[in-house]
Amino acid sequence: QTVVTQEPSLTVSPGGTVTLTCASSTGAVTSDHYPNWIQQKPGQAPMALIYSTSNKHSWTPARFSGSLLGGKAALTLSGVQPEDEAEYYCLLYHGDAQVFGGGTKLTVL
Amino acid sequence: EVQLVESGGGLVKPGGSLRLSCAVSGFTFSNAWMNWVRQAPGKGLEWVGRVKRKIDGGTTDYAAPVKGRFTISRDDSKNSLYLQMNSLQTEDTAVYYCTSGSYEGYWGQGTLVTVSS
Questions:
Q1: Which of B6, B7, B20, B34 is nearest to B88 (CA)?
Q2: pLDDT of residue A20
Q3: B50, A98: Cβ pair inside 8 Å?
Q4: Whole-angstrom Cα distance, residue B33 to residue B111?
Q5: For A79-105, how does the pLDDT look when each residue is reduced to its tens digit (9 = 90+)?
Q6: What is the mean pLDDT of residues B74-80?
Q7: Closest by Cα among A62, A91, A98, A90 to A77
Q8: What is the per-residue pLDDT for A1?
Q9: Does B33 touch chain A (CB under 8 A)?
Q10: Half-sphere exposure in the Cβ direction for B64 (13 Å, CA)
Q11: What are phi and psi of B46, to 5 degrees?
């Protein structure tokens, strides 16, 4: 059973930069895992931010960017805003299955 | 405006069945691979399964915990996605979300399924 691992929690100051990562128990994350990043605020439905490693949806703020970093998928927020406080989930494709990470709770403080 | 509206959730006893629906509008449903994702109370997101578009075979894949109990189907003429859930267990209690494929990135608001005696 594939396990996808994210930092449980991170804290960042407003205006700062933070990078969230996503690792797979099967080995290095590559573009073939089509990494996705999804944001969920308390009491709300999830919202997709990034697909296929680094592609943004039309609604994704420019301060969000996706990449591969040291064998992991990464989500970088530059110029963090208070409204970015949320849970962030990565999603990896493993063949015909998809696996979510456990989520990173991002606190803006 | 894109809308994915789930319905059919509710309270069901262990061992029971339930059928969820997702009505889609605002994008070309027949071109999209579609997924069901669930979230147990206070927990993270869990992929349930996916159905490909007809042109790609219309085949389905499921997560291990639901394989053999859940069935995903689609009706492109009605722009609708379905999730038939049988042999429900208490651990299936969750909000169930209908989502499009990664390229489109659309999510519904979810419907709550509670499995309890």
A1: B20
A2: 98
A3: yes
A4: 20
A5: 999 999 999 999 999 999 999 999 999
A6: 98
A7: A62
A8: 87
A9: no
A10: 3
A11: -135, 125
Is the CB of B45 less than 8 angstroms away from the CB of A38?
yes
CB–CB contacts below 8 A, A to B: 49
Cα→Cα distances B34→A1, A87, B102, Å: 23, 23, 9
CA pair distance A14, A81, nearest whole angstrom: 6
Chain A residues with CB under 8 Å of B63 CB are 97
Burial tier of B49 (Cβ tally within 10 Å: 0-12, 13-18, 19+): buried
SS3 content of chain B, % helix, strand, coil (to 5): 10, 50, 40
- Amino acid (one-letter) located at B73: S
The distance of A29 to chain B (nearest Cα, Å) reads 17
Q: Which two tokens stand for residue B116?
A: 């309890």
Identify the burial level of A45 via C-beta atoms within 10 angstroms of its C-beta, where 0-12 means exposed, 13-18 middle and 19 or more buried.
Answer: middle
Structure-token pair, residue B72: 């995903």
